[in-house]
Amino acid sequence: MSLKLFAAPMSSALPVVQAIAELGLDCETVMFDLSSGEQKSPAYLAINPHGVVPTLVVDGTPLFEALAIMQWLGERHGVERGLWPAPGTPQHLVALSWSTWAYVSYGALVSVLNYAQAPHGKDHLHHPPLAAEVLSQLHAALDRLDARLAQSPWLLGEAFSLADLIVASVVTYSAYCGVNTEGRAHLERWLQAFQSRESFRTAWGGGEGK
Ligand SMILES: N[C@@H](CCC(=O)N[C@@H](CS)C(=O)NCC(=O)O)C(=O)O
Question: Which of 6, 67, 135, 182 could form a cystine bridge with 55, CB 3.0-4.6 A?
């Protein structure tokens, strides 16, 4: 199987780079400089019409959206390595639930927070009451994640899995965006264990954690 990843430093591609490292897969990686706009070249738009990274090209077929890529990596390569639960098991449902929750539900709130906190050059979007509301919803979400992590060291039980990588990546990113993740014992322990992994330090560049 041939794998080619289009990625960029400090981007949504980092968790995918980390997942590939955890799985120990052979993968050609093309690093774009997003500021140069090469992600909008006709050649790349033919692979990913949205002109963003990451895209993983699997035997010539492009797969885009970081969450889809990592769930596919889990299904196709993680099960045999003990990093993703086998389809048909209850743990597989848990992995799909929490990983999708992180990107779709929690991640959507982080996007709104970024707009409400006025992204660079978009001061007209600055909206403090909306930012406060979204922050309070994000903190409530983190409380629920903390409660889940009170049940076991990792999301699926005793062992680290790509479900942890996916969820912890979004939580780590949210901390960069100003969501205070501290003060929750189980969440903090889990986040620290995640950020101490060699794959995190390598992929995210020096282990800049929360
Ligand atoms: N939801 C997408 C987000 C992809 C995305 O927005 N990537 C950004 C980097 S974080 C990008 O490539 N931006 C370049 C651009 O918009 O030109 C995913 O998770 O794959």
Answer: 6
